[in-house]
Design goal:
about 160 residues; mainly alpha; about 0% strand
């Protein structure tokens, strides 16, 4: 969980490094980030260093990102293509698995069922804050399930 959060935090400042953290080049990306921020190479340390980084360090991180992009181009590595391939691999492995299907059906069914139940109840019986919280959470889960099964990168392109 911390790794996903770290990928998002780094991705907001340095998208290429953030994407690389979640893939096979994660070690290289974390090494670059640690050199810039002067911290140890662990997700928690990197997260803490980013949270307490000064503007000069953030600018240095952006410069390191540019250098990382150049290095990846020299090595003929497309980080975003690797990330898409990783997602396609997961879909290939799990889209036919009954456990994933049952969880997906339960999630989408629960989301739709909750919307139905909230809709048929009188408004004064509903806690608006609780409804918003549950709908937001279930909506995110349902969106992830739908993206997994019907997302744009569900099948490899004709060029591959």
């Amino acid at each position: 969980m911390l790794k996903g959060l770290l990928k998002n935090v780094v991705g907001s400042v340095a998208p290429t490094l953030g994407s690389a953290l979640g893939g096979p080049l994660g070690g290289m990306a974390s090494k670059v980030i640690c050199e810039v921020l002067g911290c140890e190479d662990s997700p928690k340390a990197i997260n803490n260093a980013i949270q307490s980084a000064i503007p000069e360090q953030m600018m240095e991180l952006k410069r390191a990102e540019q250098a990382f992009k150049v290095q990846m181009k020299e090595l003929d590595v497309d980080i975003f293509k690797l990330e898409v391939a990783d997602k396609q691999d997961a879909r290939g492995k799990f889209s036919r698995d009954w456990t994933a299907r049952i969880m997906g059906i339960a999630t989408v069914g629960g989301f739709l069922g909750y919307i139905f139940l909230v809709t048929i109840q009188p408004p004064e019986q509903n806690s608006e804050a609780l409804i918003n919280l549950v709908l937001g959470y279930l909506g995110g889960l349902a969106s992830a399930v739908i993206s997994f099964y019907f997302g744009a990168s569900n099948t490899p392109s004709k060029e591959d």
